Amino acid sequence: MSEMRIIVDGLTLNYEGLFNVKDFYMMIDRFFWEKGFDKREINNMEKVHPDGKYIELELQPYKKLSDYAKIIIRIFIRMFDVKEVEVEVDGKKVKTNQGRIEILLDGFLETDWEGRWESKPSFIFLRTIFDKFIYKTYINRHEAMLKSEVNQLKTQIKSFLNLYRYRA
User: Fold this and answer.
1) In contact, 157 and 103? CB cutoff 8 Å
2) pTM score > 0.85 for this model?
3) Contact 69, 109 (CB under 8 A)
4) Which parts of the chain sit beneath pLDDT 70?
5) Contacting residues for 54 by C-beta, under 8 A, at least 6 apart
6) What is the pLDDT, as a whole number, of residue 40?
């Protein structure tokens, strides 16, 4: 069984105002495609209420760094009271969405994701020794890379949402 280490825990973003749901999804997909992540969608739910839509999305894109380690970024997005509105931009009417978004970002480092070191108790002991002393520099490098990727994603999401704040 692999070992999951929580590197980034509970990084949150909140936004209320204008945004485009489709462009938001595309921006997140593009970010992970450019960074070489494989997409994994865990949950995608949409409920229609009288005061707007409720959208819930959970993604867990991952990137295999080696045969031993991979990084996983979990994104949990909840959108409340999402309505379609028309906004005038440069004299033209544009359809967009309005609502509230809550985003939760977590980052995990998974080691021995193939389970090769779990067949015998002696291998588990050796794996612990290797992790503590031999692979330590690699693990530290992977953790730093994961933190950087999560912070870049947070910055890109904030930039995207702030674009809509000053657009109207």
Assistant:
1) yes
2) yes
3) yes
4) 1, 113-117, 164-168
5) 46, 47, 78, 79, 80, 81, 82
6) 94
